Model the fold of this input.
Amino acid sequence: MRKEECFYLGKVVSKYSFKGEVLVKLDTDEPEIYENMESVFVSIGNNLIPFFIDKCRLHKSALLRIDFEEVKDEASADKLIGAELYLPLDLLPALSGDRFYFHEVIGFTMIDVVHGNIGVIQSVNDHTSQELFEVEKEGKQLLIPISDDIIKTVDRKKKEIHVQTPEGLVDLYLRD
Done:
């Protein structure tokens, strides 16, 4: 399994017990749907290694306490601290309406209320304080904020996102 075929679930942040249990900080709004997992992929080096789970349960909101089959002592658990956990993309719960996963809108056309087609979404930059669509039109890159105020509709069938960008934003990028 490759990382491109998976989504980031969370990161091992600490040991929980002397029996090798670990605590994982989940990157999700709904941690409870991951309580009964049977396995995950753990990123070790450049590889995703499958780890099977004896037991997992929520621990204080967004932390998941995991007892892996292969990890039964503190030394083994220490080696996992900082490791990222992944699951296959097909395990993501389906979203509907105007909610979407960043990876699913790559390649969608962005349609602005005023300007019409303003390009194709190439990627999403979520490493800044404001998440941004990176849109390309005729060799130019536009950075469009991801915000409920800007996104009007998501049309999965047509692969379009309809937006109403702040006045002047599109002109800033597309003027000659």
In short: The two ends are 44 Å apart (CA to CA).
